[in-house]
C-alpha cells in the first residue's frame, strides 16, 4: 500500500502559509496527487495570483522528491518515483495508522430492548457502531464498545401486567422473545379499551424498582432469555461488543447521586409533582423523576455517562442512536454539562442516523408492524442463494449455503453502510444484491477477481515504482485509503469508506478490462500485478473494517 500519500499531505501542509489547505480529490485524468488553491492568499495579501502561486510552489519544491506544477490558481503536487511504493501487505496491520495515539474512545451502539426481538431498526445502530469501533481501532484509538440494553422502565410494568393476565401469576416460564413481544403488543391493544391497565403497569414497575422479589425474579428470567437470543444475532452478524450485557438497570443504584447533585446545585425543581431540570434553549425541561417517584431513562443516561467517564476516562464518547432521540440527547448532554459531569477536553456526541422504512412507512414495535431483523437476514440469504446458484453452479450444496450466508449478511450490512447515516433508507432488494455496483456482491466479486489473478501468478510480487501515467489514476485511488479512514473518524460516517471501496472496485473492473495482467510481461506485468494486489488488499481490509469478510470463491 502507498503510505506516502498521508505523509506527503502532512509535509506539504506544514510548509504552507496560514490559511491554505491541501485538496486531495484530484480528477482522474490528472497525474497530480494533490493540489493547493491559492486564491484566498492572493486576495488576502493583494498580490497577483501567479506571484503567490510561484512562491507557494517554491516552498513545496524545497521538500524534495516532488514534482510541482502551477496551473492558474492551483499548485499541483505529485510525489517523485522514489517515494512511491505499492507494498504487498495483507496482514492485520494493513491500513493500521497511529493517528489516535491510544486516545480512549467509548462507543455505545445496538441497545436492543429486553423481551422484544431485534428489529430491522436495530440494524443501523449495531452495524454503524461496529464499523466505527473497527475504524477507530485501526487508527490507533483505544476503544471500548458498550451496549445499553433496554432492561428497565415502565414497559416492563406493561409486559408483566400482560403476563399476569395471561397466566394468572408472575411465576417464571420458558417463553421465547417472540412470545413475550406478542404479549407486549397485546397489552397496548387492551389498554386502548381499558385505560386502567396503564395505571396497573405503572404500579407493577414501581414494584420492580422497589425490589419486589417475585417481580424481580420474573424480570431476571426475561433478561436472561433475551440475552441469549441477542447473542445469537450478534454472532450471525459478526458483532463483538466489549461490554455487551450492561443494561439500564445497572445504573439504577447510581441515579441517587445524580439527583442529589442536581438538587445541591439548585438545578432540580418540582413541577406538577415531578422533578425536572430546565434546559437552556429548550422549550421542555428534562425530567429526572416522575410524579409517582419512579425514574426515567434520562436519569439513567446521566448516570451511565458519569460511569463511563469515570471508568474509561474517554476523550470521546459516542452514542450511536437514531435521529428520533435528538432532543433527548441534547437535553442529557446539556444537563450533564450543567452538573459538571463532562471534563474539559472530553467530547460527547450523538451519532444520529435515519430510519429504515418499508413501503408501509415508519416501523413501529408498539403497533406490531416491526420487521424482525432475523427475518430480513433469512430472506437476504435466500435471495443470495439464487445469485450463487446462477454464478457458480459447480459449488457443492454446503459451499453454496456458506457463500449464500456470507453474501446475504454482507449485502444487508453494506446496503446500510453505503448510505449517509443521517438519511432514512428504504429497503431495495434488487440494489442490495446487484452485481453491477453499489453493493456487497459487487465488491466481493471484485475481490475474488483480484485475488484470483494473484493466485494464478507464479512470480514474486514487487513494489511498484516509477508509476506510468496510465496506471497513475488507479494507484492514486488506492493511496487514498488512509485518508478515507481519517475522514470516517472525522465525520463518524462509515459511508465514506463504503463508497470509497465501491470506487476502488469500479476502477479495478475498468483496469482489468484495459490492462491485461497475466498475459503481460516484464515491467508492465510487475506494475499491473502490484495494482491487482493493492486492490485486493484495500478491498479486504476495507470490507473488514465494515464488518464484512471477503470470500476467496463466490
Structure commentary:
The chain is of the alpha/beta class and 554 residues long. It has 3 domains: 4-83, Arginyl tRNA synthetase N-terminal domain (Gyrase A, domain 2), CATH 3.30.1360; 107-362, Rossmann fold, CATH 3.40.50.620; 373-421 and 428-545, Isoleucyl-tRNA Synthetase, Domain 1. The protein contains 19 helices and 13 strands. The model is unreliable at 85-93 and 363-368 (pLDDT under 50). It has helices at 4-15, 39-45, 49-61, 120-138, 154-167, 177-193, 196-209, 213-237, 255-264, 297-312, 326-338, 373-391, 397-418, 429-432, 440-456, 472-479, 481-491, 495-514, 522-545; strands spanning 34-37, 66-71, 74-79, 104-108, 142-146, 268-271, 274-277, 286-289, 316-320, 347-351, 356-358, 361-362, 425-426. The two termini are 25 Å apart. Strands 5-4-9-10 form a 4-stranded parallel beta sheet, with helices on both faces. The chain has a 3-stranded antiparallel beta sheet with strand order 1-3-2. It is 51% helix and 10% strand.
